[in-house]
Every structure is written in C-alpha cells, then in structure tokens.
Amino acid sequence: MHTDVKELFNQLWANYLEVTPSAKKIHAILGSSQQDDVINDHIALRTFNIEKVGLDKLAAHLLALGYTEGGEYHFEAKKLYAKHFEHKDPTLPKVFISELLLEKCSEKLQSIVRTLVDQIPEEAITADNFLYSGRHWTIDQQSYETLLAESEYAAWMSVWGYRANHFTVSVNALKNYETLESVNQALKNAGFPLNTSGGEIKGTPEVLLEQSSTLADEAPVQFTDGTRNIPSCFYEFARRYPMANGQLYGGFVAASADKIFESTNVR
C-alpha cells in the first residue's frame, strides 16, 4: 500500500490523463496564470460487490493513508451502493467509491463479471498501484456488448478496470470563475460537450452542492477480437455551499450523482 497520499493521487492523475486528454486542456483553461488554483474536490472509483474486490478492498488503500468513512449512498435504478471517504487534511480530495450489486443483476452478467474478476491475481489487490492498475483480464466484444445492454457501469469496468473514473474541479477554489454556469460556458465555448442528463447542472444551492461534467473522452480498447474506441473517463466540476455552521457541505447528493454516472454512456 502507498505510504505517501500525494504520490497516490499523482499516479491516479497521470493514469487518468492517459485516456482523458481533454482533462489536461480543461485544467489549463480553468487555472489562472499566477498559480495552479485547480483543486481536486474528489475522485471516483468503481468496482463490483464481490468480496475479492469489493468496496472495502479499495477503501483499505485509503484508510491506510488516514482517510475515514463519510456518507453512504444507494442508487436503486443503477443497482449501486457507494461510500465516500475524506481526510482530516481538507486540501486532500474526497474519494467516492461505488460497487455494482451483482445479486440484483442477471445470471449472465454475474457470470461474465465473475470470469473477469477470477483473472485478477490476489497480490494485485493489495499492491501499491491497485487503484490505478487498470484491467487485469481479457474480454471479447460480445461480452462487452452483453454487459452494456444491461449495465453501462459493468461494461465500463469490463474495459477500463481499476482507475479514477473521474477527477473533479473544485469551483469554490477557482480564481477566474465564481459560478458553475460560468465554468460550463467556458467549456462549451472551447468545444467540450457536457453531460445534459438531468440538466447541465445537477443539484441546487438548497441541497448545498451543484455539479456538472463533460461527456467522457473516447480511447481505443483492446479486445481479444479487435480494437475499438470506447468512452473512457470524464472531468467533473463541483460547487459546494455552506451549511448552517458556515462550513462547506462535504457530502454528496445521490440524485445528482445518479446523473453524473451517465457521463460515460456510449453515445
């Protein structure tokens, strides 16, 4: 397991940029020239609720670095369960980990997923790089299509494996932009397509969190029977509002996150 939390996020970021080149361009657009004020609000990780690789196995890497459990979230329609983790150092990003509840999925999906997970070496799961280790298995295009027909989430995991599904810009920390609307407008002006599911902005000041995101980049994926471009990862933007005690809200809003998940949908 990593001993340096900043090194972990540096590696996650480098791995994410490999398949999300738009993030580097957006980072440059939003940052001010005087200093790097693009602060990462949170990242998101995905997995399956199989004991070998369940949410707790991913969380162990964070707990070892001083993270503690925050809230928990249920996504009935997408058959997902999630928790977020935060660090006592407020400059470190929160981490949102979700897992697909296989028992709520078809036998066919369960069978394909178990075949994939069976190929992961046990030692890989506790290795330093597990959270950005990518895919540990081979997969054919028909299996991917079968997963995609039932669960975009499972299909995404089947081709990308373990990596940050997205990074998130803290709009509160930006010098040149005060609102999420102004961030979205700058992105649209630069030609980046936004996720409009549930509206360009998910959430409201009343629920203390507003979020928006780009649509995922596409990158080539190697299947056993060919290569094709598949949606990879996306960039999210979050503006948090103060709670009654004056502190910024630190959690997540399930109804908004539900729509954010759709940023990796095949289009």
From TrEMBL:
Its EC number is 1.13.11.93. One of its GO terms (molecular function) is dioxygenase activity. InterPro entries: HGLS. Its cofactor is Fe(2+). Coiled coil: none annotated. Keywords: Dioxygenase, Iron, Oxidoreductase. Belongs to the 2-oxoadipate dioxygenase/decarboxylase family. This is 2-oxoadipate dioxygenase/decarboxylase. It comes from Rheinheimera tangshanensis.
